[in-house]
Design a protein that fits this description.
Structural class: alpha+beta
Number of helices: 7
Largest sheet: 8 strands, mixed
CATH superfamily of the largest domain: D-Amino Acid Oxidase, subunit A, domain 2
Order of helices and strands: EHHEHEHEEEEHEEEEHEEEH
CATH class of the largest domain: Alpha Beta
CATH topology of the largest domain: D-Amino Acid Oxidase, Chain A, domain 2
Number of strands: 14
Low-confidence stretches: none
Strand order of the largest sheet: 2-3-1-9-10-11-8-12
Mean pLDDT: 96
């Protein structure tokens, strides 16, 4: 649910809400008096909201990842824990991935290294202007309140999300590359507004975090064949929507690797578009 503190901002947002509805997004405009029926933890300070009732969210990313890994192992997949360093052509048409351990030969290689994909893509002939949008969150481990649904503040531009381990306050967008140290001061403005939004919210016990969103200038991912090496495929650059678009990206790349035509038109996402 996206909440608006300012009535004028809520009014200006209506055109965007209508456009999303026209494209089949099931949104419901919520009156001020209805907001706390959806999320009782919120205070009575909002001019309106928009709510998507069919929305799901992951409450524990670690357990979610572990479940995916277990499913892969059940299908016969294996995991190699090592640092990937280079991709190069191997013998007999194979592709070779050099790692901090052994060299790995494969019929197909997918570059899905997130914010670290740029170097591998270049080795495979794809020169993409990949950069990072660094995001921050604070996991409130003893929030003192419970929440039912994820809430985005329109004015603040961040989310409060109920998780298994507490309430996660997450957002911001920092362009600082891969090497700069985290600037956890960026979390404090979110906490100040979060306390205003949710009466009784305890922000004293928290675990700060910073992560790298792999992003491209046109806000679209790079999905498709690498131009300089047969059997190498790009699947990175999803920005703020990595988890959301992971499954459809995986399906498209699997189709390419298997010689099938993907259901998704990949032309707008070509790694060669830059």
């Amino acid at each position: 649910m996206e909440v608006f503190e300012n009535a004028a901002a809520f009014a200006r947002a209506q055109w965007g809400i209508e456009i999303r509805k026209q494209h089949g997004v099931p949104l419901r405009v919520v009156k001020p008096e209805e907001i706390r029926q959806i999320e009782p933890a919120l205070g009575p300070r909002f001019a309106g909201a928009v709510f998507r009732e069919d929305m799901d969210h992951v409450v524990n990313p670690l357990r979610f990842s572990q479940a995916i890994a277990a499913s892969i192992r059940a299908e016969g997949g294996t995991f190699v824990q090592a640092e990937a360093r280079d991709i190069r052509a191997g013998a007999d048409g194979k592709k070779r991935v050099e790692t901090s351990g052994a060299s790995l030969d494969a019929d197909a290689v997918v570059i899905a290294a997130g914010a670290w994909s740029k170097r591998f893509a270049r080795q495979a002939g794809a020169r993409v202007p990949l950069d990072t949008e660094r995001g921050y969150h604070a996991m409130l481990t003893e929030p003192g309140v419970t929440m039912r649904v994820p809430v985005k503040t329109h004015e603040g531009g961040f989310f409060l999300t109920p998780m298994e381990l507490g309430i996660r306050v997450a957002g911001t967008d920092e362009l600082a590359g891969l090497k700069a140290p985290p600037n956890y001061k960026r979390i404090e403005p979110m906490l100040i507004r979060a306390r205003r939004m949710v009466p009784g919210l305890n922000t004293n016990k928290l675990e700060p975090w910073m992560g790298f969103r792999p992003s491209l200038p046109d806000s679209k991912p790079a999905i498709g064949r690498a131009p300089g090496m047969d059997g190498v495929y790009c699947a990175f650059g999803h920005g703020h929507f990595g988890l959301t678009l992971a499954a459809v990206t995986a399906e498209a790349v699997c189709d390419l690797a298997a010689g099938r035509t993907p259901k998704l038109d990949l032309a707008p996402f070509s790694p060669q578009r830059f």
